[in-house]
Amino acid sequence: MGGNWMGGNWYGGNWFGGNWFGGNWDGGGGGGGGGGAFATRTDHPLAEIKVPSNMAAIYPAKAWDADLHSLLILPEFFGIANVMTQLAGSISAPAAVTQAEIDELLILAVTERPEAMGEILNQHQNQQNCFMQLLMMNSGSHPLTFTALKYTARIGEAVMIFFKDKYKKARPSQVCPMLYPPLPVPGHAAYPAGHACIAHMTAKCLIDVTSKTNPVKPSPYEPALKALADRIGLNRVIAGFHYRSDIQAGADLAAAAYPLLQSCTLYSNAVRDARNEWP
Description:
- By secondary structure, the chain is mainly alpha-helical.
- It has helices spanning about 65-70, 75, 85-90, 100-110, 115-135, 145-165, 170-175, 195-210, 220-240, 245-260, 265-275, and strands spanning about 210-215, 215.
């Protein structure tokens, strides 16, 4: 897969030789699966030191690799009755590409891409890190929020891949190679846009987590989170990876998928607990 993406491996795993949609964003710290090698002397091994025999028998929750634990949300989400039928109504089959759409991307490549390159590079592989930067959080400072983000990314990744495979829309640079995206073109179809889908689901998750229910207190971060999700989608157009219609479809899919995710007990409990990490 050869890249850093969204559903797994945010410093938690490096699956399949690369980092992809849910993936590889830790934001600094976190439990489970630390890297590196650890040696012990052969003449005086640590194993010869006696330790108490009443050590804990249950694997601690905080030691779980968050990437791996996030897979647990998949069976619950896809156990929802007619879940994909419900989502199918949120987006339509993509329309045929027009010359006007290609022309817009060519103009954006010249007029906007040079200035947007820093953001494009930041957001291409680890867009969740951008959201965590916005809220001054990481996996160590807000581990429960981080867990909720992992569940969100997993579902966003799964549903967008399902519809990408269903519609099989060609990438803009297949239609017009001279768009020449500044980074390797992802190995999946264009519609709906995965970055847009997961960005909007991530924003919804963080708005949910940073809101209060008793008493009701709206998230103070909502405008900024929505603006960042919109910017991430726009930058995928400027980079030549997507048409605007791909981005809109990704946002629409996120709007349909997030309430279904909220109905999952594993996720709703994670959000409830994560709220305690915020004032």
